[in-house]
């Protein structure tokens, strides 16, 4: 890198424009950065005027981030090579479909010692069956290191300056401080980790889960079902990283790029919104994308397709029933009403008591035969064979639409509050040392909050903690949000 670090933002959509507000201010104020930030803008005509001209005169991206002023040192450039040729840091923030072509255009036209950071959430199909991470494509084509930035960062809220967190997955830790300084602000807090691939995979996969969350909203199934979809989605994300990117850290899922991004996208993002409309209107995803997104791109359905391509090639579709069902619904191979049937006997609903759980940190584990899958769902009867008094207790609860994952964890007590009823009742005694996760009820902590955190500290294995913590936490968030909305 040269003395003053010069920055280019490749992309000017909703997120590209929001991040330009922060990066522009940092480059104008921090001495290590060149003040002028170039921003590649795909040229479009708006009311007879070029978008680049509008941005450079009014300092507003009227199409993708209306109502927000960009710093004046952010300069819109319609030519990709012109925008990038002098940059030491290239921030890639365009829908992932455009990246292969962008790389072809930029090959040999950028500084050889430039570094990249991708804010793009999505994959590309790899030749021969598989997926390519966008950061890997950038590195391979442009021969420069590429870090990633992902987090619970809905662009409009970041542009408003609301507090949030983000995660940078740094390829080479020597760039960590510079990248953090470039993006961090009072209300945009950056955590840098070295688990770059896992950070990026989280950012892409959560859009699939958000599509599923939108289907649940469209079907009107309520917050508990949505929490179950979020939790199962998280577990499939963990499993996916475990299978395809071994060596990644479970702790990465607890950064902003993991749980937090998943929750925000399942409640606030465009994937959720369009998926809900898909159910309610009967229109196709493509029609809704055109009608509802004003030129913005959906990431969930194409990512589901790319993941399915990979799972199918490896014969792993049945290990990822939620991802598979969402892809099939988006491509009209499955009715949206069948979504829940596809996840009713999810691999995550296996027995996970200490005796039967053979899993090692995050592997999901095999059933030790205690939980028997039923071929027919007609009767709401327990699906597991009781082996002890405690198992009998659990089996009373495990029904057609009410899936129970038995766990062992210490020092955790919680109560269940059936939806619509005021009465609380305790279902577990801490001294029994057994904890049951009931996915169908609103859940509240026995002794104050946060329950998820107490569950995490109480469980002895990370995978159990994740299983318990997220399901409870997500349900709790839904509970809080329902209460807030009701006010
Ligand atoms: N919007 C968010 O809240 C948000 C937050 C975090 C991450 N992301 C991720 O950031 C990436 C970019 O999303 P966004 O919201 O900024 O984009 P967007 O969907 O708002 O905008 C589309 C962008 O694509 C460009 N474009 C359209 N047609 C083009 C073409 N033919 N060739 C080249 N460029 C073209 C447009 O100029 C625009 O910059 C995505 O991967 C997204 O998942 C988005």
UniProtKB/TrEMBL annotation:
Keywords: NAD, Oxidoreductase. It catalyses: sn-glycerol 3-phosphate + NAD(+) = dihydroxyacetone phosphate + NADH + H(+). The keyword NAD applies. Pathway: Lipid metabolism; Phospholipid metabolism; alpha-glycerophosphate cycle. InterPro entries: 6-PGluconate_DH-like_C_sf (IPR008927), 6PGD_dom2 (IPR013328), G3P_DH_NAD-dep (IPR006168), G3P_DH_NAD-dep_C (IPR006109), G3P_DH_NAD-dep_euk (IPR017751), G3P_DH_NAD-dep_N (IPR011128), NAD(P)-bd_dom_sf (IPR036291). Residues 195-340 form the Glycerol-3-phosphate dehydrogenase NAD-dependent C-terminal domain. Signal peptide: none annotated. The keyword Metal-binding does not apply. It is an enzyme of class 1 (oxidoreductase). Residues 7-175 form the Glycerol-3-phosphate dehydrogenase NAD-dependent N-terminal domain. Gene3D superfamilies: N-(1-d-carboxylethyl)-l-norvaline Dehydrogenase, domain 2, NAD(P)-binding Rossmann-like Domain. Its EC number is 1.1.1.8. Belongs to the NAD-dependent glycerol-3-phosphate dehydrogenase family. Homodimer. This is Glycerol-3-phosphate dehydrogenase [NAD(+)].
């Amino acid at each position: 890198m040269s003395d003053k670090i010069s920055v280019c933002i490749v992309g000017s959509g909703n997120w590209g424009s929001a991040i330009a507000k922060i990066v522009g201010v940092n480059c104008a104020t921090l001495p290590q950065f060149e003040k002028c930030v170039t921003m590649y803008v795909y040229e479009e005509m708006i009311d007879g005027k070029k978008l680049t001209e509008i941005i450079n005169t009014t300092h507003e991206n009227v199409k993708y981030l209306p109502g927000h002023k960009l710093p004046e040192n952010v300069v819109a450039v319609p030519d990709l090579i012109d925008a990038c040729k002098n940059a030491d840091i290239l921030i890639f923030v365009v829908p992932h479909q455009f990246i292969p072509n962008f790389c072809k255009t930029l090959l040999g036209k950028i500084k050889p010692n430039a570094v990249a950071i991708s804010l793009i959430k999505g994959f590309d199909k790899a030749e021969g069956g598989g997926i390519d991470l966008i950061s890997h494509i950038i590195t391979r084509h442009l021969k420069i290191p590429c870090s990633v930035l992902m987090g619970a960062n809905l662009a409009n809220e970041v542009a408003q300056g609301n507090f949030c967190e983000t995660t940078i997955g740094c390829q080479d830790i020597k760039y960590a401080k510079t990248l953090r300084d470039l993006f961090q602000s009072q209300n945009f807090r950056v955590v840098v980790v070295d688990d770059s691939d896992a950070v990026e995979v989280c950012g892409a996969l959560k859009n699939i889960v958000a599509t599923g969350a939108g289907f649940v909203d469209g079907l009107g199934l309520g917050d508990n079902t949505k929490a179950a979809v979020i939790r199962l989605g998280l577990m499939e994300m963990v499993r996916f990283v475990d299978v395809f990117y071994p060596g990644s850290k479970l702790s990465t899922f607890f950064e902003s790029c993991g749980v937090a991004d998943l929750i925000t996208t399942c409640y606030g993002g465009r994937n959720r919104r369009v998926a809900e409309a898909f159910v309610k209107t009967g229109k196709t995803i493509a029609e809704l994308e055109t009608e509802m997104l004003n030129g913005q791109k959906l990431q969930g359905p194409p990512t589901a397709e790319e993941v399915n391509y990979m799972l199918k090639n490896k014969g792993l579709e049945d290990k990822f029933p939620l991802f598979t069902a969402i892809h099939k619904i988006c491509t009209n191979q499955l009715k949206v009403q069948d979504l829940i049937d596809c996840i009713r006997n999810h691999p995550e609903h296996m027995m996970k008591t200490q005796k039967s759980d053979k899993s090692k940190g995050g592997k999901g584990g095999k059933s030790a035969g205690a939980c028997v899958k039923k071929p027919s769902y007609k009767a709401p009867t327990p699906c597991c064979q009781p082996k002890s008094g405690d198992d009998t207790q659990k089996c009373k609860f495990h029904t057609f639409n009410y899936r129970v994952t038995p766990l062992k964890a210490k020092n955790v007590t919680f109560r269940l509050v059936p939806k619509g009823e005021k009465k609380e009742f305790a279902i577990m005694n801490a001294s029994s040392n057994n904890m049951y996760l009931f996915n169908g009820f609103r859940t509240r902590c026995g002794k104050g909050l946060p329950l998820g955190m107490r569950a995490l500290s109480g469980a002895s294995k990370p995978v159990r903690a994740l299983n318990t913590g997220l399901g409870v936490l997500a349900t709790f968030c839904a509970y809080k949000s329902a209460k807030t909305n009701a006010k």
